[in-house]
Design a protein that fits this description.
By secondary structure, the protein is α+β, with helices and mostly antiparallel strands. It folds into two domains: about 280 residues, Zn peptidases (Aminopeptidase, 3-Layer(aba) Sandwich); about 80 residues, OB fold (Dihydrolipoamide Acetyltransferase, E2P). Helices cover about 20% and strands about 35% of the residues. A hairpin with a 6-residue loop joins β16 and β17.
């Protein structure tokens, strides 16, 4: 039986078509329209509906470039299923600069809210950021079976393609909670989700499958209470299978972008939406200890030139130093606390307390490993 056309916002997409459009959210005080761009590829044949979403944080726009390149290689005439793509989910935080770590801001400058802490959004008595989430949820995310959430190393850091497999914890009574950005801040008490243990285990297995299929060298397995206000948590609690990925950074086009294009196509191949063999690294590892290293002081950051992106370093290796920009005094020396692969490293010189230094995958905490031909 022939597939039917679908409608997103005011755009109708017929089977075999690629269409672009905008989702209207609101008008600001000076009547500037807030709208979110989207792309739809509606295959002729049936298959999964997948949301590919990027730039919840405006200082992390590299996923949008990955999606632009990847979807340019997908022909809707041969696609099985439907791709709903939101490459610039938080457009105002991209447009208005000023963030310390890059050219965009993490939060929406209109209300200073983090778009990844307000899901599934609100339509009434709501801040603008909540209304953006509500429109995206109703028009796109809630219609999908899978959600891939793209982030990057911000304007401060370059980063390998990496998959973060956020999963329900083993204890179902502690399956839902909240924490600050990057796992920092004060956590709230964990509570049950209302899902059965079998449902949570099934979700974990599907997330694990997506993470491996993405095809990055490093996969971070994160079994912890799910935050219902994050897009991943909101999806998981409603049966949508999500995967959080990071790639690229420093607002720089480098080799990691094309590598992440292949990872994106790997996922579509895994879901049998497109044909072809996956493009995989020679070795993949999954770890359950992943360190986001931050500076304790401010100054000028100096990289260790012997520690490159993807380097394997021993415990105690100097990743970089912070020096006084006037006197050259070494104010801080960051040494790897574990044997690790350097997944992300800082490339921006000015640094303030809390600035990103590196992401480190603990190679003594490998829980799965595979060698690919």
């Amino acid at each position: 039986m022939a597939r039917e056309a679908i409608r997103v916002g005011d755009v109708t997409v017929r089977p075999g078509e690629r269409r672009f459009g905008f989702l209207h959210v609101a008008y600001l005080a000076a009547k500037t329209e807030v709208r979110v761009p989207f792309q739809v590829l509606h295959g002729i044949e049936g298959g999964p509906t997948v949301c590919l979403e990027s730039t919840l944080h405006g200082w992390e726009p590299m996923g949008a470039e990955v999606l632009r390149r990847a979807l340019g290689r997908v022909d809707p005439q041969s696609l099985r299923g439907t791709i709903l793509c939101i490459p610039l989910a938080n457009p105002m935080s991209v447009e208005i600069g000023g963030g310390i770590e890059g050219a965009g801001q993490r939060v929406n400058p209109a209300d200073h809210l983090d778009l990844n802490r307000v899901w599934p959004g609100k339509s009434e008595n709501a801040w603008l950021t909540e209304r953006i989430a509500d429109v995206l949820w109703r028009e796109v995310v809630s219609r999908c079976e899978y959600l891939i959430d793209y982030h990057d190393g911000t304007g401060s850091s370059e980063e390998l393609p990496v998959a973060f497999a956020f999963a329900f914890p083993v204890n179902p009574s502690m399956a839902m909670g909240a924490e600050g950005a990057d796992g920092i801040g004060t956590a709230v008490a964990a509570t049950p989700t209302g899902l059965s243990l079998d449902q949570m285990r099934a979700m974990n297995e599907r997330i694990r499958g997506l993470a491996i299929a993405w095809g990055s060298t490093v996969i971070s397995w994160r079994e912890r209470p799910v935050n219902p206000s994050m897009i991943l948590g909101a999806a998981m609690l409603r049966g949508i299978v999500p995967l959080y990925v990071e790639t690229g950074g420093g607002h720089t086009i480098d080799w990691t972008i094309d590598a992440s294009v292949e990872c994106t196509l790997n996922l579509l191949k895994h879901l049998k939406m497109i044909d072809g063999a996956p493009v995989l690294p020679s070795r993949q590892i999954m770890v359950n200890n992943y360190i986001v290293a931050r500076s304790k002081t401010g100054g000028f950051y100096q990289v260790n030139p012997r520690v490159q992106l993807g380097s394997e370093v021993a415990r105690g290796t100097v990743i970089g130093t912070v020096v006084d920009p006037l006197t050259s005094e070494v104010l801080e020396e960051y040494r790897s606390p574990v044997n690790a692969i350097v997944v992300s490293r800082r490339v921006r010189m000015p640094i303030n307390p809390g600035g990103y230094v590196a992401h480190l995958a603990d190679t003594d905490a490998i829980i799965w490993e595979r060698t690919n031909a």
